[in-house]
Amino acid sequence: MKDYDAIVIGAGHNGLTNAAFLAKAGLDVLVLEKNDYIGGATVSRELHEGWQYSNCSYVCSFFRPEIYQALDLGRHGLEVVPLQGGATFMQNGDHYGNYHQPAVRRREIMRHSKRDADAAIRFDADLMKWCRLIRGFLLRTPPDPASFKWRDAMEFASLLKAFYQLTESQIYEFIRFFTMSIAEYLEEYFESEVIKAHFSGGSIIGTGLGVYSPGTAYVLLHHAMGDVDGNVGSWGFARGGMGSVSKAIASSFKSLGGDVRSGAEVSEIKVKGNKATGIILASGEEINAKVVVSNLDAKRTFLNIMNKKDLPEEIIHRAENFKIRGSSGKVNIALDGMPDFPALEKGSPLTLGHMHFSDSLERLERAYDDWKDDRWSTDPYVDMVIPSQYDPTLAPAGKHMVSVFVQYCPVEAEGGWTEEKRQAFGDTVINQISQYSPNFKDLILHAEVRTPKEIEAEVGLTEGNIFQGELTLDQLMFNRPFPGYAQYRGPVKGMYMCGSSNHPGGGVMGAPGANAAREILRDLKRTDTTPEDFGDD
Predict the structure, then answer these.
(1) Which domains occur in the chain, in start order?
(2) Whole-angstrom Cα distance, residue 181 to residue 206?
(3) Listed residue (9, 4, 5, 21) closest to 517, CA to CA
């Protein structure tokens, strides 16, 4: 078996991104994946004949355009179609329509509250103000606050320069924003319950927190920082499903000379003399490399595939206490046709976007209360999309594929998960949708129900947490994953991390993978080959 310059563990989109940039710099790189397919949670799978499910991640927005351009992903087949519309259905038979056109959206808000129509303008402007501030640091390596190195000092200076441009009141407002609950934040703008509920959804997706929990306002910002075709805050569908993202990155990587091996689960990172020297597969095969990069989350990396004798006790302790709480489920559904929604006009453009069925903050908080008691929500928050309206490759002609993301679903249902409980969870979600779409159940041909237990077993996300670690203030920037280890380097030489447990966090954005590649190339004295499309130099 040949030796490699670098081995990347895990063929999720961040691992592939990292590998592609290393290969672009001329390194001989191998990516190892435990499953017989690549992509991790960014996959498209035919789990019902004729239907392609995006059975984990399901919409595209976070992926950084700088990475798209640097790896020439358009040439490798990645096409993202902007998503339009969206609706939150109300129990009284009405709805709030989140129209794509600003003038129509304003009229729709006025239908619910004339005051909120003006408040929405302020809300959008304030949210975009924080987006612009934070987006500038997504593709930068966080500074180490305990370091006296020139590079860390300059990075802190860059942070201070960005904040120096804010007024005194804006600085206070920014600090409040990071520590507030989304409910309290929205209540400073809006009076309509359905509008507050509509905007609060992004703050709880993938998070073990409720709408009244401090810190959820930032989670909303995290979800608003992406863009499609330069439109910040927009979302889109990858043609062919989310697997098209990982396939395009893998194609770019292979065109640069990289190798991918599936069905190759790594059991241990080899360490000799405080330096990573390669990996050992579950089969017993050993492969040597100068650099080993883990795309697994912090818990799996330090507690599963590294020998504890090779680690400082501090790292083991921090990994054990790193917050990764599973709270999300997924239901993917094959439909025999387009469902009806009596609250909407036939052919309404609102079905082209995100559809929700929780119309008040109280309902959202009660859904969280169920999760705290190890129960799936009896009245869950769901984010439903029907991407086959845009993309005919996902389902046969006249049929549709529905992707439903669910909050909240516990890692261990009270008394433990059983097949009957898993199906009952799926039925709860389908029953909720059916309250607003009376023919929905009659159209179902197949449904795949996934709790955090299935997500962890298949994808390798601890507790099924889609962000590889919660996005709370104590786990952001130079605290992600742990203080002193936020610059993608592990505790032994030649060992790195490139997954979403690192800055800037979760979502299909590729930034952790790209940032880690930059640090690896810097350590290898290959700064002449570091991509100029992004960076912190």
Answers:
(1) 4-45+59-80+239-323+468-529 (3.50.50.60)
(2) 16
(3) 21
